[in-house]
Amino acid sequence: MNFQELTQKITALAAAKGGLGSSIKFATDAGSILIGADGSVSNADDAADCTIGVSLKDLQGLMSGDLNPMTAFMFGKLKITGDMGIAMKLKDLF
């Protein structure tokens, strides 16, 4: 799955669930995916309440369930800046 396909998948998930009440940005090696507080999704590199630095490959693994989020965090595959509590809300989205 390439960056654009992953953006489309996140857009569909966010549209189905609505907003999380906070903005979350995935900063990948291929670009940024920003989920707005209202559930809108863009590739803007704007500020977010929580930013998750992750490779595109590892983000795909997280979304498919092949990569455990806690394991990824413990091994440094995820770098979280901002409010970590917001990152915990992602389980509601995925």
Span between termini: 16 Å
Counting structural domains, the number is 1
Count of helix runs: 5
List low-confidence stretches: none
Helix content: 40-55%
Q: Which structural category fits the helices and strands?
A: alpha+beta
Looking at the overall shape, the CATH architecture is 2-Layer Sandwich
Cα radius of gyration in angstroms = 12 Å
- Strand element count: 5
Strand/helix succession: HEEEEHHEHH
Largest sheet, in brief, is: 5 strands, mixed
What can you see in these coordinates?
By secondary structure, this protein is α+β, with helices and mostly antiparallel strands. It has a single domain (3-89), classed as Nonspecific Lipid-transfer Protein, Chain A (2-Layer Sandwich), CATH 3.30.1050. The chain is built from five helices and five strands, in the order αββββααβαα. The chain has helices at 3-17, 56-64, 69-74, 84-88, 90-93, and strands at residues 24-28, 31-35, 41-42, 50-53, 79-82. It has a five-stranded mixed β-sheet with strand order 3-2-1-4-5. The longest helix is centred in the first third of the chain and has 15 residues, at 3-17. The two termini are 16 Å apart. The model has no long low-confidence stretch (mean pLDDT 92). InterPro entries: SCP2_sterol-bd_dom, SCP2_sterol-bd_dom_sf. This is Putative sterol carrier protein. Residues 33-94 form the SCP2 domain.
